[in-house]
Every structure is written in C-alpha cells, then in structure tokens.
Design brief:
By secondary structure, the chain is an alpha+beta fold. The protein has 21 helices and 23 strands. A hairpin with a 6-residue loop joins strand 22 and strand 23. The radius of gyration is 37 Å and the shape is elongated.
Length: 667
C-alpha cells in the first residue's frame, strides 16, 4: 500500500516538475519576446517613436495673417479689419446641427437669416472647416456661451479679424469682397502650391481688387507650437512664428468723385468711368445699381442672395467691366480722326446731309426724321453729329481700315485694367463675321459701323480708355486702379504703373482738329445748352445707341416703347481741352438721347471735380493756415511788425473768388 502511494507521489511530482519547466519555458519565451520587442522599439524604431511622442506632446496652431487694408488716393479706408467674436460650428464634430442650434438659441440670439446662411455654407465648405453661425457677438453673449460651452461639442467662440467695407455700395464693384474659402477655392490653392499659406484662414478674395490682388493682400500665416497634456489641454507655448500681414493698397480712386457720381446717378442704371489721361489713373469706376459687399464676408443667406441675383436691374453685374454696348455717335470723333490720318477725306470737303443715306434698296436714316443738316464738312459733322456724313465716310473707308485704326485705341481689346473678368467686346472685321456667323462681310454691314452701331459692342471702360488716349495725344497709358503697394513690414512703396504701354503715331494737327471740334460740341453743338457758362473748356461728344432696331418706314417714339427697350444715352468728354486732367465715358441705360441724360451728368461731374472739389481743398487749406496764424505765439512787438501782408491768410475761392484759392483764372 505504501509502495503504491510512493509511486503515485513520484508520478505527481514528475508531472508537476514537467509543468513547472513548461511554464518556466513559456515565461522565459514571453520575456524574450517582450525584451526583443522593447529592443526593437528602442533601437530600430527610436527616431520614429520619438517623433510620434513629440507630436503627441506638442500641437501646432496656425495664426492667420492680418489682411492688408485698401485706401483711396486720399487715404480714405475702403477695406479694413475689425476684431469680432464669432460663434462657429465644425460639422465633423457636431452630431446634430438642428438640435444644437435650437439649444444655442436658448443661450444666444440667432436669427433665421443666420440659420439660412449657416445651412448654405455648411454644404459648400469642407466638413472640418468651422462654419459661422453668428458674427459680432457681444461680451455678454460670449460670457453666457462660455459658461455653458461644455454642452455643445464642436461649437466654439473665436476671436477673428472681420473684413469691413466702410464705403459700402459706393465702391463695391471696384473693391469687391472676400468670402469663405470654398472646396473649389481650396482645390485651386492646393494645385497652385499655396495651400499652406491659407492654413487657419477662412476667407479669400472673390471679386474686384480683393480678388485681383489676393496674393498681395493675404500675407502669410504664423505658427505656434504648444505643449499639451494627454487630455489635450495646453501647458505652455514652446515656439512662435509671427504671421506676416498682407501689404496695403492705395488706389487711384477718388472717393469724393465716386460718391458724387453715385449720388447723381441715383436710381438710374448705368456706368461712369473717369480716367486721368496723363497717368491712366482711374479716378472713378461706377456701375449702378450696386450692392453692399459686407453681406458676403461671412456668407450671404439664400434669401438675400436670391433677391440680388433675381433683381432685373442686375446689381451684381459689373457694367463698367463686363457690360458691352453699341456706343453710338461717341464713335464719330475716332472715325473722323481715322479719315484724317489715312487721308481718306479732306476735312474741308462738304457733303449734303439730307437726312438719309441710301445703299442699294436700303435707306439708312438719321435722328432728324429726314430733315438733315444740309451742307456739312468734317468739323461741323462732329459738332451737329451728322449720321449721313459718317454713313458716307464708313463706305469710303471700308471695314478693314476702320478695324485696323480703332484697334490700337483699345476698342474690342482687353485694356489690361487690374480687375479680373474684363469683357473683350466686339470690334467687327471680315474675319470676325466669318468666324462668328460663317458669312462673308457685306458692304451694308459697314455703313452702321460709322455711327457706332451695327456689330460694334464695346465696354464703357474701352470707350473711356480711348477718350483718355485721344486727350493724351495718342500716348497710351494702361488704365489701372491700384496706384501703389505699401509693404506692411518695411513701409516701402511700389508704384504699380507709371510708363506708357504704347504710342499711337498721330499727327498733332489732326488730333488738335478733333479736339477743337469736340470743344465746339459743348459750345455750339449738341451739348451747348448743358455746358453754357462753364468756367473751363470741355471737349465732348454726345451719343445715342439703339437697343431695338427700327424697321424701314417706322419712326422712333420712346413713349410707345418699354422703358428697358429705349435708347442708351452716352457722353464722352475731357477737360480742360489744352491740358486734360480728366477724361470721361458715361452711359445711362435707356436714358434716351445723349444730351438728355448723359451730358447733364457729365456737367455735374466736371463741375465737382474741377471746381467744387478745388474749393473744398482750398477752404480746408486756408482754414488750416488761418488757425495756424491765430494760434502761433507772438512774443514781441517787433515780431508783429515783421509780419508782411503776404503772410496774411488769403481769401478763398469760396468767398470772394480772389486770392490763392481762386479757380476762376485756371480755365
């Protein structure tokens, strides 16, 4: 019995020993595996794991740059940045938008318009991009939300620089606006290799100067490395690269003139462009009606967008840049200059204007209803605006010579102005008609070209550019809106455009002939009543462009035509004639005859720019001098005696019209 027990005990002992050795082997094997893993991680993957550990310990935050400001030529700010608080939702971090917004409305006042804008933006922007719900939060609203922020995952209040346009509608089509970076914008930035420059940035230029000079205005972001806990809470800042602000822009625009034009246009549709001939500086760039660019900065809500987009007056359309029109009789001075330069017609040659011109079986009529102007030479043809003279001249010149002469003046060409989206228009030619309509050019096509009708379709910018070139004796200056770029870091100024881009070889006597004829338009011709008594000399030309064609035998009667189908009213001008400071092109849509709407507007614009504005400047200067004289300390009687009459303040033009501030003797 004892022997049997001993055998069992030995058997169990052997089993236990084998098990111990087995578990010891397994344990050693596991430790070897663990040790080899440690060795592998510590030796072979050390660099990679250290980098990951550092990445878990540190996080990088982008600080978007301050966008450059935009000013007019006199320093008036047209686009600036205001610090505001914005309530934002990141879609990828928020499970239920609608419920979240409902709960937020209990804490902060959120309007229906805010919600409509949010719903539109969240569908356009990437899911990881924060979408604004409400901008411009008050300190009280920020405090209320902060106290309950734990209830709203993916929602936060951020302090951002908000773009603001103080001039509003008055400069919207020039300055443009910024808007949220869309997925299409992001793709374009990535493809151009500029994606990193927009890290942390929500907005980008969409139209106008904001778009054209995006690279100049944007700047470069800064980056901050922050040490964080495992929970993600920040501990301290490790390093900081400051953002580089965008550069500032000084425009050629004169906002005083711009506002005056907007005021005078009122509710009328149209466009006005004013250029300084000697420099190409665009002094005014008006497209009316306009819109408030501030609506687009945080994303416009759908209802407001629809009201603007569906408005039959098309306030979003930049008429000055994109609209193309027949320019009517404003084309005639250039036709006359072409005839002089090419010696197609002697300026003294007289033709009989009997009110119509016949080519084959077709009769081309004029605006005199068949009365005509009788005998007219070239000078009188411009002064009275004889259609028959230019029907005849167009036939003599032919389309090839008309096209070749007008092209250097910029008709039907891209002027190169520093705005994206300029329309080319149409300067017709044989090749153009063949390409467009697969038809040969007919002789009858040329006749209407002579009076600015037919296939002619130009932008008012092209017309203003051509007038400025004529006023500048054929020296071509590229029209531009940005005068200089100011480096935000160094303060250095870069002049954008200062040299001529071309010189049209015109004979001085021919240019002077056209200028004197245009001057007589305002003194003896179609514009004499409007410009009577002007204290400066003006060269001008009225124009009327048909919107609808009139059938043979019919008479134009504006009272029987819908307002939007009536003729456009045009006027071109430069002043003073001998040394032009300003060149104008005006188009009032459906305004009727040029002398009825556009010419009176030109008179008000020129009066303001050449007289009223100078009075204001003189009054300001004289007031400053007078104040300086009054506040300057006089210590001795000898000093009082030393003051000569010439040192005394002069009477301004706004007063007696005498003295240093007077403008009466200028023109």
């Amino acid at each position: 019995m004892e022997r049997r027990n001993l055998e069992l005990e030995q058997k169990f002992r052997k089993q236990f020993t084998r098990r111990c050795w087995f578990f010891l082997f397994v344990t050693i094997l596991l430790y070897l595996i663990l040790a080899s893993r440690f060795a592998y991680l510590q030796i072979f993957q050390y660099d990679e794991l250290v980098t990951k550990a550092e990445a878990n310990r540190k996080t990088e935050t982008a600080h978007p740059p301050r966008r450059g400001i935009i000013m007019d030529k006199n320093g008036e700010v047209l686009a600036t940045n205001d610090p505001i608080y914005t309530l934002e939702i990141t879609p990828a971090k928020t499970p239920n938008f609608n419920q979240t917004i409902k709960e937020l409305q209990k804490v902060i006042s959120i309007s229906k318009g805010d919600i409509r804008r949010f719903n539109r933006l969240k569908d356009e922007l990437p899911r990881l991009s924060p979408v604004p719900v409400k901008s411009g939060l008050t300190d009280e609203e920020v405090a209320r939300f902060t106290a309950q922020s734990w209830r709203f995952p993916g929602v936060e209040v951020r302090s951002r620089m908000h773009r603001f346009y103080p001039a509003g509608k008055d400069a919207a089509h020039v300055v443009g606006y910024i808007g949220r970076i869309s997925q299409r914008d992001q793709t374009r930035l990535e493809e151009s290799g500029r994606g990193n420059d927009y890290t942390g940035t929500l907005n980008i230029g969409k139209t106008g100067i904001e778009l054209s000079y995006e690279d100049v205005l944007h700047g470069k972001p800064g980056f901050e490395q922050i040490e964080v806990r495992a929970s993600g809470r920040p501990i301290r800042s490790l390093s900081m690269t400051q953002p580089q602000s965008g550069n500032n822009l000084v425009l050629t625009l004169d906002m005083g003139l711009q506002r005056e034009i907007m005021k005078e246009l009122g509710d009328r549709r149209g466009t006005v462009i004013a250029i300084e001939p000697a420099t190409g500086d665009v002094l005014a760039f008006v497209s009316n009606p306009s819109f408030d660019p501030n609506l687009f900065v945080d994303g416009i809500d759908q209802e407001t967008w629809d009201s603007l987009n569906q408005d039959e007056d098309k306030p979003l359309m930049n008429r000055a840049l994109r609209g193309t029109y027949p320019i009517g009789s404003t084309f005639k001075p250039f036709m006359a200059l072409a005839a002089l330069e090419m010696k197609v017609r002697d300026p003294k040659r007289v033709i009989n204007d009997n009110g119509h011109f016949q080519l084959g079986n077709h009769v081309f009529r004029d605006s005199t209803r068949g009365r005509g102007y009788g005998p007219v030479d070239m000078h009188r043809s411009i002064v009275v605006s004889s259609d028959v003279y230019y029907y005849s001249l167009a036939q003599d010149m032919g389309i090839d010579r008309i096209h070749d002469f007008m092209k250097p003046f910029g008709f039907g060409q891209i002027t190169g102005i520093d705005l994206v989206g300029e329309a080319r228009g149409i300067l017709p030619s044989r090749e153009w008609k063949q390409r467009r309509f697969k038809q040969r050019w007919a002789q009858g096509d040329t006749i209407s070209i002579g009076i600015g009708q037919g296939y002619n379709a130009f932008t008012i910018l092209q017309l203003a550019h051509a007038v400025a070139t004529l006023a500048n004796d054929g020296i071509v200056m590229k029209p531009h809106l940005v005068k200089k770029i100011i480096n935000s870091k160094t303060g250095e100024e870069e002049i954008v455009a200062k040299n001529p881009v071309d010189v049209i070889p015109l004979k001085k006597e021919n240019v002077n002939f056209i200028k004197r004829a245009m001057q007589d338009v305002t003194q003896k011709g179609t514009g004499r009543a409007i410009f009577a008594g002007a204290p400066y000399t003006i060269g001008g030309k009225t124009g009327t462009a048909q919107v609808l064609g009139i059938k043979q035998g019919e008479t134009y009667n504006k009272n029987k035509i819908k307002e939007r189908h009536r003729d456009h009213s045009l006027f071109i001008a430069f002043a003073p004639v001998d040394k032009p400071k300003i060149a104008l092109a005006i188009m009032v849509e459906n305004g009727g005859f040029g002398a009825a709407a556009a010419a009176p507007l030109a008179r008000k614009i020129l009066d303001y720019y050449l007289i009223e504005q100078n009075k204001d400047k003189s009054s300001t200067e004289e007031a400053g001098k007078e104040k300086s004289q009054q506040t300057k300390p006089r210590n001795t009687a000898a000093e009082k005696k030393a003051v000569k009459p010439a040192d005394k303040p002069q009477t301004t033009a706004a007063g007696t019209g005498k003295g240093k501030g007077s403008v009466q003797s200028k023109y």
